UniProtKB/TrEMBL annotation:
CDD domains linked: HTH_XRE
Domain HTH cro/C1-type: 13-62
Gene3D superfamilies named in the record: lambda repressor-like DNA-binding domains
PANTHER family documented for this protein: DNA-BINDING PROTEIN, DNA-BINDING PROTEIN-RELATED
GO terms for MF: DNA binding
Organism name: Actinocorallia herbida
Protein name: Putative transcriptional regulator
Amino acid sequence: MPIAVDIDVMLAKRKMSVGELADRVGITPANLAVLKNGRAKAVRFATLAALCEALDCQPGDLLRWETEATTANGKAQD
């Protein structure tokens, strides 16, 4: 998927668990896992705003554009 969601990075910076973030945002841990694992087809602006508020960050801290030549771990393919 061309848009990657970097929730793990912000969780580590904030020393927060997935369960705690899910509670603060008001979504289930399962739905948060869908976002974290790149399986989400869309994200509501309200959810993105709640994530940013809970993690004290900007949308650009959570979302990253990946070109087709970029793998999921951020390294260019040969």
